[in-house]
From TrEMBL:
Domain named ABC transporter: residues: 17-257
Taxonomy of the source species: Bacteria, Pseudomonadati, Spirochaetota, Spirochaetia, Spirochaetales
Signal sequence, renumbered to the chain: none
Keyword entries, A-Z: ATP-binding, Nucleotide-binding, Transport
GO molecular-function term, one example from the UniProt record: ATP hydrolysis activity
InterPro entries: AAA+_ATPase, ABC_transporter-like_ATP-bd, ABC_transporter-like_CS, ABC_transporter_ATP-binding, P-loop_NTPase
The protein's name: ATP-binding cassette domain-containing protein
Gene3D superfamilies: P-loop containing nucleotide triphosphate hydrolases (3.40.50.300)
Amino acid sequence: MAIIEATALSKTYQNAVKEAGLAGALKHFIKPVFTEIKAVSEVRLSIEPGETVAYVGPNGAGKSTTIKMLTGILKPSGGQIRINGMDPYRDRLENTKRMGVVFGQRTQLWWDIPVSESFTLLRDIYAIPPNRYKENLAWLSDMLGLGPFMGSSARKLSLGQRMRADLALAFLHDPAVVFLDEPTIGLDVAVRERIREFLKQINRERGTTILLTSHDLDDIRDVCDRLVVIDRGTIIYDGKLQALLDQCVRCRTMHLRLASDGRDFAKKIGKHPDLEVIASGPCEASIEFDRFALSAKDIINLANSTGEVVDFRIDEPDIERFIKNVYEGKLDISENRGRA
Ligand SMILES: Nc1ncnc2c1ncn2[C@@H]1O[C@H](COP(=O)(O)OP(=O)(O)OP(=O)(O)O)[C@@H](O)[C@H]1O
């Protein structure tokens, strides 16, 4: 059974339209005018226990709004959600016992007390059995290196220390599912790497389901095995990252080692409409080709018709470029809707 299930999930915000000045305020008071922003529209999500899912999309696509609805912070305008079989808004108290949340821009830590006391407070709120608490705290502290700053107040922590403590708090009560909204935002490379390792390990060892939003491509690639892309409030892709790359990255590059001169080869086949020779030398050539129009075998056959192919290699699709295009709205993947 799915641990996260959302059907026809929608959220429409009402924004007040006010003219400037006192007259505008009065006018709004007498006859308020609102515009509607459809932040999330008919979203369907079904996530099985133990999955690691990246929820990505350009700024304003509706990621945070979705997470806020899934965690019970916001009431949906329409649709249904079940997290661990519960409605996160209606059964909010019960649901938080089995769920963890980290918002990269906010903290769960109490600002003026030592970090260690935030942990004991949460232990009491969640009623974690003493032995389990001790075990979990030692484990999380070890994995995230919390020891050196457990005695400091949250206000004295660096951003990286604060985020590590926040992550440990989110996992302290053995939640079955954890939502992470930009967990690595603003952190340096070493801390980001440590957090990614932590997430992979906790997913592997404890089977915790993770849904994360991130603009960091390494987070997506390293931690998640599934990608859900939202754009203008609508899911435009839900499936394996690799499957999407296979479908969407049209252009492949093949590097050939030839028994003959690559420059002659380039002259002969360079006019082919579905390929471009991007480099050629005495015994080599590199070709960019449209993989929907030509197969690797077609290229080899073409090359063999002008000389002899000694060896070849095909470059992997460029994940960075691909996701960047998705974020910048340059790639239309709407035809790939649905799980791959
Ligand atoms: N409280 C709010 N009131 C009105 N409109 C809102 C509110 N929160 C978000 N919006 C609007 O809803 C849309 C989706 O916003 P949301 O924050 O969910 O996007 P996002 O994908 O998380 O963006 P980002 O990557 O920039 O964090 C945007 O148009 C945003 O301006």
